[in-house]
Amino acid sequence: MEQNHASVLLAACEKRREERRSFLRAAGGIAAIGAGSSLLAACKEETTPGQSTPTPTPSTSAPSEADVLNFALNLEYLEAQFYSFAAFGVGLDANLLTGTGTQGTVTGGQRVTFTDPLVAAYAREIARDEIAHVTFLRTALGASARIAMPSIDIGSSASGAFSSAARAAGLITGTTSTFDPYFSDENFLLAAYLFEDVGPTAYKGGIRFLTTASVVEAAAGIHAAESYHAGLIRTVLYRKGLTTASLITSADRISDARDSLDGSTDLDQGISSSGSGASIKSNIVPTDTSGITFTRTPQQVLNVVYLNSRSVDRGGFFPNGVNGNLRASAANA
């Protein structure tokens, strides 16, 4: 990433800071639908020199249930690969990668040498959940409808998605500096936080397009699981941040950067506490005044995982884009 572009990213993120602060059962019902039909922190991603930025026109028609399930499967591929490498040192089995669309590869990924046994145990639990989500969705959609895993970038190179996201969020500086999510417990937690807060908002945003009762029930089940994961990661970061304040600052910067990508409304929330003394209050669950978490549309979710606030069909953690019919992010720039 060129320095002048990084400066633009940081400036845009800073502006947003100043403005401040969405399936685990009933597979039979979903399989019938699949057989019949189809997660940061930069404000804009750099376009490869000599190439124009793709500006696809998002579909105005409501997506089918199979479209929504396949969209979710893209995200589950991403999370499952990240957690599987971090917890076990290996990615998904080959039999979990096939499907319609171009099957991609995974860039990066390695086992974390955890020093906190609690974080290691949590990582293994979440990894198994995410692998189970991939398996479930693939089975539910069926062989003729499920998408293949697209290319995924979870590496730690200076030009990779994690480093680009961290640089634009202000966690690292300089075009050659890197953010390695596998270097330490703390880096792993921050990388997980980047993804985990997106999952609940993505499922909440997609559930409106589901009409079959068994599909809604299953989607609600995965939504709940992703919410548990997100709350867990936020809790551990907050607890560690009580003694290492930079962790809370970094999490808040990631939140601000995500918020700079998905539109003008300030919805994303960090983990900073409010109040003082006996009145101090944590912010483990990002809610509105009614205690309800916010929603992202599929297009807004793609803004975050593509690391781009414009309407594009690839980038960030999905260098060649996602598979399926829901491919374009929203035009928020």
From TrEMBL:
InterPro entries: Pigment-catalase-like. The lineage of its organism: Bacteria, Pseudomonadati, Pseudomonadota, Alphaproteobacteria, Sphingomonadales. This is Ferritin-like domain-containing protein. It comes from Sphingomonas floccifaciens. It comes from the Bacteria.
